[in-house]
Design a protein that fits this description.
By secondary structure, the chain is of the alpha/beta class. It contains twelve helices and 15 strands. Helices cover 39% and strands 20% of the residues.
């Protein structure tokens, strides 16, 4: 969906297709047919933006076969879909029964990450709508924390600098500018917006910015207004924003709260859990670890990296950090000019919910995603943006 900001610029609202993972091109085409177009129809909009996730095998097929790429572009147009951003964080296997740390591999110390992202950029330059000159690709920042040292950071910097060179060449060939958005995430070498200052400041600003994920922002107990003000002072662009909500547990000492959290402890994804006490941030890499007595302070509330559907917070005694999303969005697009023009709803944990809350049919998932986008649309119009036909 497209929105007109009061300053006249266009803001795109998409949803990320990693909620329906596919490993090959046939799977991607099935996503467009079975999920993306039905969501668009449910919303009643003529054109829906999607944050497309393409796994390595799909990228390989599209990069080596111009006819396949033309076919994908034709399918997007036919189904009323457009692509202005790609999710380049997961490499493959995002639909596996156990993802956890695999989502961080290969990282930016591995040449394969550079190859994959370069190929994504080439595809996005050719998938962008004819009236859009710039696209964004979100990616990991730049590795999981384990084994991250000065040597690894230098290797990642070299790879990212080479990527900038390739993107400059791509723009000279296609006339399309692609910007890479590093996405801070709890547990990574770059966990917060403040952690990104050094790595991003050392990279070409016309090619690199930040992917701000409001779930990650909340889970790390960052204050949106302060974080965004610091980014502005350092000159780091917010190239893309993922609209998502983290899990909130108000009183971890309450047995009912602990029982509700335990019901959400599942093996597919990491659910990094954080607590802040006396100005210090404490954390674990999973809900199960957090629930072990004495690991996290329990006299304060907890926040967990569990992407909660925007319109459907968990039942009491749990909740979500939707208010952090609202505050962030207000700062981003509620002012005289938008700080970013790429917004993307990302709730990939629908299938990780307890069985009683999980969509049992395709239409239920369609309804849920459409409801999330409707909430985001309402927030934007409340801030003075106007939806475009």
């Amino acid at each position: 969906m497209r929105f007109r900001h009061p300053d006249g610029s266009t803001v795109h609202l998409a949803y990320c297709t990693n909620v329906h993972p596919a490993e090959n091109l046939d799977g991607v085409l099935a996503q467009l047919r079975d999920h993306c177009e039905p969501v668009r129809r449910r919303l009643g909009t003529e054109c829906l933006a999607i944050g497309l996730w393409l796994a390595r095998d799909a990228v390989g097929a599209l990069s080596t076969d111009p006819a396949a790429l033309r076919g994908l572009r034709t399918e997007l147009d036919r189904r009323g879909l457009e692509v202005v951003t790609l999710n380049g964080f997961p490499y493959q296997g995002f639909g596996a029964e156990e993802v956890e740390h695999r989502v961080y591999r290969p990282d930016w110390t591995d040449p394969e990450r550079l190859r994959y992202t370069s190929d994504l950029a080439g595809l996005l330059a050719r998938l962008l709508p004819s009236d859009v000159a710039e696209g964004t690709i979100s990616t990991l920042p730049p590795a999981w924390r384990t084994g991250s040292d000065e040597t690894a950071a230098a290797t990642a910097h070299t790879a990212l600098t080479e990527l900038a060179r390739r993107l400059d060449w791509l723009e000279s060939e296609t006339g399309r500018s692609i910007r890479i958005a590093l996405e801070p995430e709890p547990g990574c070498a770059v966990e917060t917006t403040a952690d990104s200052f050094g790595p991003l400041a050392a990279l070409p600003g016309h090619r690199f910015g930040l992917c701000l994920n409001t779930c990650h922002l909340a889970a790390s107990f960052e204050e949106p207004e302060a974080a965004l003000a610091a980014l502005e002072r350092t000159g780091i662009a917010v190239s893309k924003v993922r609209l998502s909500a983290a899990l909130y547990a108000g009183d971890p000492r309450d047995p009912a709260v602990r029982s509700a959290l335990a019901a959400l402890d599942e093996p597919r994804f990491l659910h990094q859990t954080r607590a802040r006490a006396a100005g210090t941030l404490h954390g674990t890499d999973g809900l199960g670890q957090a629930l072990a007595r004495g690991v996290l302070p329990d006299a304060v509330h907890w926040r967990a990296h569990f992407h909660v559907p925007l319109h459907a917070p968990p039942a009491p005694p749990l909740s979500s950090t939707l208010e952090v999303l609202v505050e962030t969005l207000t700062v981003l697009v509620g002012g005289p000019r938008p700080v970013t023009r790429r917004l993307e709803v990302e709730t990939y944990t629908w299938r990780a919910l307890p069985p009683g809350l999980r969509p049992r049919a395709r239409t239920q998932l369609t309804d849920g995603i459409a409801a999330e986008l409707t909430l985001a649309r309402d927030l934007l119009t409340d801030l003075g943006l106007k939806e475009l036909p």
